[in-house]
Amino acid sequence: MSRTPATARLMDGSGLARRLVDETAARAADLTRRTGTQPCLATVLVGEDPASVTYVKMKRARCEKAGIRSRHLELPATTTTAELVAVLADLSGDPDVHGILLQHPVGPGIDERAAFEAIAPEKDVDGVTFSSFATMGFGLPGFVSCTPGGIMRLLDAYDVDPAGKRAVVVGRSAILGKPAGLMLLARNATVTYCHSYTADLSAAVREADILVAAVGRPRFIKGEDIKPGAVVIDAGYNPGNVGDVDFDTAATRASLITPVPGGVGPMTIAVLLSQTVDAAERQLA
Ligand code: NAP
């Protein structure tokens, strides 16, 4: 049986992320020249979860390449909530630190929300505090969750205006689905959230002019459910470099689609770096 060829244009997240990092590095260099202070991101890692160790290492390496200083704190897995809150409160009050990233999940036994709330809103460059959620929800200036922030930048880069569009977000995690929907709503999309309790998910997906897949299940969204001409954003990243959308079938119906890898993924760290320089610019002004 012959397969319908792909018609969708690819949304090049790798290229866009590279441009954002270059622009961020130029802003970091300019700020350092003008103020004599290099932007600084503090990274806090609790325990030794291998994936978390790798992510933090990657983030620090990217900081260095972009001219952002990183201060790294490693805490043992036995750290208590009170101890972690004290460390984050110290960093929040330290004028030499402009952004704070608490690598999460922080592991069992720690009240993650209490830890996040110890991050000063003006240093919340990962967009995890209630304060950042509120500004995202109201569409006010502030720091956004990095992956959804990357998704919005991708939409903008490809001239996709969410206003008046039906946006369907599959997934409602605090770091991805929920803030992605908030940001689309703030840009005047009509937003539907789907999650594990959603009845007839296919019917909801078929309505989407903009689909954001943030489920964590390989090829979960099938091409036959994609509305012809839809914009498909696949934030999923599953073992084997597989997204949450069945790319081959979805690409025959979508107008624009993000590849996995090379779509949403590279945007996340790029937004983190950009927001760190934003924070430093505001604090050093
Ligand atoms: P998560 O916390 O596990 O959330 C998954 C969401 O999907 C939940 O809201 C869950 O619903 C929903 N869900 C699960 N099974 C479902 C089903 N059968 N039908 C409908 N909804 C279902 O995952 P996450 O952290 O948001 O990550 C999602 C994906 O994005 C993963 O592949 C992850 O690797 C990727 N990701 C990528 C980046 C990046 O930088 N590119 C960053 C973060 C995450 P309930 O709320 O009802 O449980």
UniProtKB/TrEMBL annotation:
<protein>
    <recommendedName>
        <fullName>Bifunctional protein FolD</fullName>
        <ecNumber>1.5.1.5</ecNumber>
        <ecNumber>3.5.4.9</ecNumber>
    </recommendedName>
</protein>
<dbReference type="GO" id="GO:0006164">
    <property type="term" value="P:purine nucleotide biosynthetic process"/>
</dbReference>
<dbReference type="InterPro" id="IPR000672">
    <property type="entry name" value="THF_DH/CycHdrlase"/>
</dbReference>
<dbReference type="Pfam" id="PF02882">
    <property type="entry name" value="THF_DHG_CYH_C"/>
</dbReference>
<keyword id="KW-0560">Oxidoreductase</keyword>
<keyword id="KW-0554">One-carbon metabolism</keyword>
<dbReference type="GO" id="GO:0004488">
    <property type="term" value="F:methylenetetrahydrofolate dehydrogenase (NADP+) activity"/>
</dbReference>
<dbReference type="InterPro" id="IPR020631">
    <property type="entry name" value="THF_DH/CycHdrlase_NAD-bd_dom"/>
</dbReference>
<comment type="pathway">
    <text>One-carbon metabolism; tetrahydrofolate interconversion.</text>
</comment>
<feature type="domain" description="Tetrahydrofolate dehydrogenase/cyclohydrolase NAD(P)-binding">
    <location>
        <begin position="145"/>
        <end position="283"/>
    </location>
</feature>
<keyword id="KW-0028">Amino-acid biosynthesis</keyword>
<dbReference type="InterPro" id="IPR046346">
    <property type="entry name" value="Aminoacid_DH-like_N_sf"/>
</dbReference>
<feature type="domain" description="Tetrahydrofolate dehydrogenase/cyclohydrolase catalytic">
    <location>
        <begin position="11"/>
        <end position="126"/>
    </location>
</feature>
<feature type="binding site">
    <location>
        <begin position="171"/>
        <end position="173"/>
    </location>
    <ligand>
        <name>NADP(+)</name>
    </ligand>
</feature>
<keyword id="KW-0378">Hydrolase</keyword>
<dbReference type="GO" id="GO:0000105">
    <property type="term" value="P:L-histidine biosynthetic process"/>
</dbReference>
<comment type="similarity">
    <text>Belongs to the tetrahydrofolate dehydrogenase/cyclohydrolase family.</text>
</comment>
<keyword id="KW-0368">Histidine biosynthesis</keyword>
<keyword id="KW-0486">Methionine biosynthesis</keyword>
<keyword id="KW-0658">Purine biosynthesis</keyword>
<dbReference type="InterPro" id="IPR020867">
    <property type="entry name" value="THF_DH/CycHdrlase_CS"/>
</dbReference>
<dbReference type="InterPro" id="IPR036291">
    <property type="entry name" value="NAD(P)-bd_dom_sf"/>
</dbReference>
<keyword id="KW-0521">NADP</keyword>
<dbReference type="InterPro" id="IPR020630">
    <property type="entry name" value="THF_DH/CycHdrlase_cat_dom"/>
</dbReference>
<dbReference type="GO" id="GO:0009086">
    <property type="term" value="P:methionine biosynthetic process"/>
</dbReference>
<dbReference type="GO" id="GO:0005829">
    <property type="term" value="C:cytosol"/>
</dbReference>
<dbReference type="Pfam" id="PF00763">
    <property type="entry name" value="THF_DHG_CYH"/>
</dbReference>
<comment type="function">
    <text>Catalyzes the oxidation of 5,10-methylenetetrahydrofolate to 5,10-methenyltetrahydrofolate and then the hydrolysis of 5,10-methenyltetrahydrofolate to 10-formyltetrahydrofolate.</text>
</comment>
<comment type="subunit">
    <text>Homodimer.</text>
</comment>
<dbReference type="GO" id="GO:0035999">
    <property type="term" value="P:tetrahydrofolate interconversion"/>
</dbReference>
<dbReference type="GO" id="GO:0004477">
    <property type="term" value="F:methenyltetrahydrofolate cyclohydrolase activity"/>
</dbReference>
<keyword id="KW-0511">Multifunctional enzyme</keyword>
